[in-house]
Design brief:
By secondary structure, this protein is mostly helical. Helices cover about 75% and strands about 5% of the residues. A hairpin with an 8-residue loop joins strand 1 and strand 2.
């Protein structure tokens, strides 16, 4: 039998990704709602990293919503007070290194926490998915193209994690997310080259 909380999170999550692909800022409140529901589902299934990640997603979704609605970036050729709306862009090389380093530091830290302070039976896997998801969410909030590549990896890893935990509907959701991440990549890439 399908858990109604999982089903509601599933449907809200699909709507959220659709909005993200289309750059519709209403995807962020949908992220808040779906994350709250999935936090409960994951906690119940001893996926504590995933559960806590959903709480982080709630905070990051509030930040992302602000970024997309009012976030501005100063243009290099203009005065510091002149700005333009946040646009799709690529990370600069130094930014890529910082993002990778932060993810590689977060993974063992999260794994250690999950291994020593919870009864998780998948601490390294949960820690990796959690670290990469935080990275992807940050990149999405900044409208960085690389977010879609990270999401593809996260979603594929999460499919396996959800199958391991017998969360079949959520495994299907993350499979759909992987496909939608490819769609998101292509859509944003096309918008960027216009």
């Amino acid at each position: 039998m399908i858990n109604p909380v999982e089903l509601a999170g599933f449907l809200l999550s699909l709507a959220m990704v659709y909005c993200n692909i289309k750059e519709i800022h209403w995807g962020w409140p949908l992220a808040i709602l779906s994350s709250a529901l999935y936090s409960a589902v994951f906690w119940e299934n001893q996926l504590y990293g995933e559960s806590i990640l959903q709480l982080m997603f709630i905070l990051m979704a509030a930040w992302g919503w602000h970024q997309w609605r009012q976030g501005e970036v100063a243009t290099p050729s203009q005065a510091p007070t002149t700005s333009m709306p946040l646009a799709i862009s690529w990370l600069e090389k130094p930014e890529r290194f910082k993002v990778l380093a932060a993810t590689l530091v977060a993974w063992p830290a999260l794994t250690y926490f999950l291994d020593h302070f919870t009864d998780s039976d998948v601490a390294p896997w949960d820690g990796l998915v959690t670290a990469m998801s935080l990275t992807a969410q940050y990149l999405l909030g900044r409208k960085k193209m690389e977010n879609w590549g990270v999401w593809i990896l996260v979603n594929l890893l999460t499919v396996g994690l959800m199958v391991w935990k017998s969360l079949w509907l959520t495994a299907v959701l993350y499979g759909i997310f992987a496909i939608l991440s490819i769609v998101g990549w292509r859509t944003w890439r096309a918008k960027q080259s216009v």
